[in-house]
Structures are given as structure tokens and as C-alpha cells.
Amino acid sequence: DAGITQSPRYKITETGRQVTLMCHQTWSHSYMFWYRQDLGHGLRLIYYSAAADITDKGEVPDGYVVSRSKTENFPLTLESATRSQTSVYFCASSALTGGYGYTFGSGTRLTVV
Amino acid sequence: EDKVVQSPLSLVVHEGDTVTLNCSYEVTNFRSLLWYKQEKKAPTFLFMLTSSGIEKKSGRLSSILDKKELFSILNITATQTGDSAVYLCDTTGGGNKLTFGTGTQLKVEL
How confident is the model at residue A94 (pLDDT cuts 50, 70, 90)? Predict the structure, then answer.
């Protein structure tokens, strides 16, 4: 199906483990984004990518790594998960920059125990 | 540091009421302001505003931007229980930086 899909939907992992959250979009949108959503903070940008092989840090990048070898995929990796990374993670894509409407994936709820 | 502040944080209204949600911002090289509705899952796009004083309208929802006073409002008329959600405001500034407010939690009761 066309759209933006995230996997897994739910994940529980232990402190110190590496975790990768997947994001796939079928529109060939240039821009892709990763956000985390926490109570009291709203949505905060972790990393974004303007095109394949081009990534940049957002507001809260520490502890995360991204890659964009193909336009359609933008995985987010927690190299050594910490409890503070327990959150809901949203992936989004956009055809253009300049504030055009973004489309969000359905989110991944990650719990680090 | 760029900042987006939404108010109120939460409110409860009765069906049929009209509500006004506020979003004020301090953003370097402001380019646009967007409104989203978030129910149980991911936010869904409502409006994008780039020009001051031009109202965007979709059914019972409307929004307007004031670039001089640095704020936007989202109006919902004749509210319904299906309007219950968190409404998020986000701005795009210089360097494609996106800044979200913490949202307004709206609950519409019968």
C-alpha cells in the first residue's frame, strides 16, 4: 500500500541494547524526519534527511544514528538504549521543504527497561 | 532559540461550542506555520499558513496567521465529540528547522 509505514509498532528492549526503528515511504518524497513525542515536550525533531545520503541533526540527536542509503527508507538506530529514550517515535515525510504539509507514520512505541 | 507556545494546554467544551486555540512563536527566518490534529495515532495535517491575514478554511475549522504579532489561531465552530484531540502547531524556520508546540488537548463533551 502507498504511504508511510513504521515498524515495529511496539518494542520493549533492555538498557544497553541496540534497537533499530524502520521507516518506509512509497511516495519518493525527498524529505524524511524522525521525531520523538513525550509528555510535556510535544514533538521534538531527532534527525532529518533532505535526500538519499544527506542527513542532519535535529533538536535531540544524541544517542541516535540514522542512515538514508535509499530515498524510501530512513531507519533510526539507538546504539545503546537508555531509559530516557522510552518514547513514541514518529517518522514523517514531505515532498518539499519550506513548510509543506508533512505526512506522519503511525508511530512506534518504544519502552526501554 | 526558536520557540512555539500553544494555549490553552487543555480545555473542555460542550458540543456546539466554538473554540479558539492559540499558537504564538518566536522563530528565526520564519517560513510557515502548520496546524495538525492528533487523535490516537499520528498527527494529521490541517492547514499551512505562510501569509499574514489570509484565512484558511476547511468545513468548521479555520485558521489565520498574524506575522506582525507572531501568532496564529485555530477556530473550530459547532464543535462535535469527534473534534476531541490534541491540536499541534509547528513552524518552519531557517535551515528547515521545525519547531513544535506542546499541543492543546481539546475534549468535547455531549
Answer: confident
